[in-house]
Amino acid sequence: MKKIYKNINDRSNYGIFCGVIGIIINLFLGLIKLFLGIYSRSITIMSDAFNNVTDMTSSILTIIGFKLSSKKENQYRPYIYTKYENLSSILLSMIMFILGIIFLIKSINKIISPEQLIINYITYIILFISLIVKIFQYIFLTKSSKKINSKTLYTNSLETRNDIITNTSILISMFIMKLYNINIDGYLGIIVSLFIIYTSINNCKNEIYNLLI
Fold this sequence. Notes:
The protein has 213 residues and is mostly helical. The protein contains six helices and no strands. It has helices at 8-40, 43-69, 83-112, 121-147, 151-180, 185-212. The model is unreliable at 1-5 and 74-78 (pLDDT under 50).
């Protein structure tokens, strides 16, 4: 039977724990992708490393949101603190939107000015490890969001799902470029970035509606 968190402090502590896990994972992935981006001379991988570092900000916002939402309500301002979680979810969606725009611009630039990359087994191993870690993080966040009924963790899971799609597209593009000696990285990047932008706008609209009701 699903555990229901009736004590708001237990719920917020669980949410904060999820945020800390997110910081550790994204710091690890950001560092190894930064190394890989410099090694392979890939702007795409380096920008994805920046994406992971930015995801740390999302985890920090998650912690702040749960900290604020754990404050007790009072008779003069009922439910005001529970709205902080909606606000943090909106901020996460805005971050996703900005990253989508940045990735779209970089993808267009990659089409206009393609670069010769260094692609070998080190590239594949690091990208594959990153993909596996993100898949486990997505499963963890999805289950956690349902476990404590958290909009913020759900938004985090959407962001992680986008990271999985991004990592997969980069891995596929590297494999195809190495195998056929062609560059399709920019085209795949456009598809991924448009998906990220659509998801962030849709989620932001839903959270703004929940905030106003």
